[in-house]
């Protein structure tokens, strides 16, 4: 097949970019030709003989809103000019003013806007008004994009529900969960000293953006107050402009919370802790949650976190309310207080992750491509036969 993938970035160290990177690698291994219409792509892909990289320049106009629209206009014009060259056109959400065959949906702005934890208010300030307008525009653009594609591929059932809430027919929706590197993220020897973590206590890990409340570190900290003093917390994320060190001090947790700042070797950090806590108030599909499962960690999460849907009662703990600190504390103590229970959760979590490898994810995308290609070929055949009959 001749495949066109339209995205901003295709590389390993980027969430959405990693998804597209793995799809490209698997498509190339299967003998297909891939064109990347993007702002940036990994060098090893660009150098491949069956990869064509078409760089889309990023606009220098002010505001992200205008920059994204310029990117979408440029991509749309290029797709319309070259559409006949491809068997499958794969876009990612709203990224181009052009129709597509496959739309991989990693985030739905309408779902974020209506989830109950959306932080911006139109009349609060100029910054808030801009953020609301940005969200509204994205909602409208995503609706248009979803209506102008053949197959919609949400990255979780949570995201699929948000797509359907926009009035998009369920028959066109095929969920493909994001993947995880099960070789990179695996159980192994602890390296606590390397991360400045104490050797003796039970250590939880929280990883995420420490500048926003959506990831919900505040509830984790309030839950930690209600647990045993032997339970510690490692916090991985950029500390600059984060309010949480001050919150930790105000709660009297300075001896039990260990900020690692940005961690480049997350697999090693996950091998150095005892459990993973992820009560995100809103998450389409958290890659870090899948990485924790693959590392064989007991995972404590909430239903509002995309990815929780892959966890069963034997592979993790899924709570109902992300803001219930007492319930979170009880779950933490259940895992921390029973090593056999924790070990069983971790072993089953690893089993779940094996079915969510990058290879398995990419092969599911290729199956969708093949279905689309076959359907397009079948639709073209009657037209070709009719043309031939006219010639006769």
Automatic annotation (TrEMBL):
Q: Name one GO biological process term.
A: lipopolysaccharide biosynthetic process
Q: Where is the Glycosyl transferase family domain?
A: 191-351
Record-linked Gene3D superfamilies: Glycogen Phosphorylase B
Q: Which Pfam families match?
A: Glyco_transf_4, Glycos_transf_1
> Per its record, how is this protein called by name?
D-inositol-3-phosphate glycosyltransferase
Q: Which PANTHER family match?
A: GLYCOSYLTRANSFERASE WBBK-RELATED
Gene from which the chain derives: mshA_8
Q: Which domain of life is it from?
A: Bacteria
Residue intervals of the Glycosyltransferase subfamily 4-like N-terminal domain: 14-183
Q: Where is the signal peptide?
A: none
């Amino acid at each position: 097949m001749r495949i066109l993938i339209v995205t901003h970035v295709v590389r390993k160290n980027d969430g959405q970019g990693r998804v597209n990177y793995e799809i490209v690698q698997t498509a190339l291994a299967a003998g297909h030709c891939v064109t990347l219409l993007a702002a940036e792509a990994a060098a090893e892909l660009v150098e491949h003989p069956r990869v064509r990289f078409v760089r889309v320049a990023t606009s220098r106009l002010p505001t992200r809103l205008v920059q994204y629209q310029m990117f979408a206009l440029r991509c749309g014009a290029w797709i319309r000019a070259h559409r006949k060259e491809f068997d499958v056109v794969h876009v990612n959400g709203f990224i181009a003013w052009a129709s597509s065959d496959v739309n991989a949906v990693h985030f739905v702005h309408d779902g974020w806007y209506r989830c109950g934890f959306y932080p911006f208010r139109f009349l609060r300030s100029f910054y808030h008004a801009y953020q609301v307008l940005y969200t509204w525009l994205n909602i409208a653009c995503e609706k248009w994009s979803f209506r102008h594609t053949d197959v919609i591929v949400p990255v979780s059932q949570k995201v699929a529900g948000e797509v359907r809430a926009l009035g998009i027919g369920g028959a066109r929706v095929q969920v493909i969960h994001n993947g995880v590197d099960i070789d990179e993220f695996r159980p192994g020897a602890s390296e606590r000293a390397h991360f400045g973590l104490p050797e003796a206590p039970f250590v939880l890990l929280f990883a995420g953006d420490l500048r926003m409340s959506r990831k919900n570190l505040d509830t984790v900290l309030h839950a930690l107050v209600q647990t045993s003093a032997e339970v510690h917390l490692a916090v991985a994320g950029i500390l600059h402009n984060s309010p949480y060190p001050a919150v930790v001090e105000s709660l009297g947790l300075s001896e039990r919370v260990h900020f690692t700042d940005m961690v480049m070797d997350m697999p090693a950090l996950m091998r150095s802790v005892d459990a993973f806590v992820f009560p995100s108030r809103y998450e389409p599909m958290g890659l870090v949650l899948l990485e924790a499962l693959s590392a064989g960690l007991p995972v404590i999460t909430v239903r509002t976190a995309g990815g929780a849907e892959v966890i069963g009662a034997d592979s993790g703990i899924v709570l109902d309310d992300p803001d219930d600190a007492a319930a979170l504390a009880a779950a933490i103590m259940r895992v921390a207080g029973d090593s056999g229970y924790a070990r069983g959760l971790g072993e089953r979590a690893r089993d779940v992750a094996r079915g969510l490898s990058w290879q398995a994810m990419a092969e599911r995308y290729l199956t969708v491509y093949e279905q689309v290609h076959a359907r397009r070929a079948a639709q073209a055949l009657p037209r070709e036969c009719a043309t031939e009959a006219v010639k006769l």
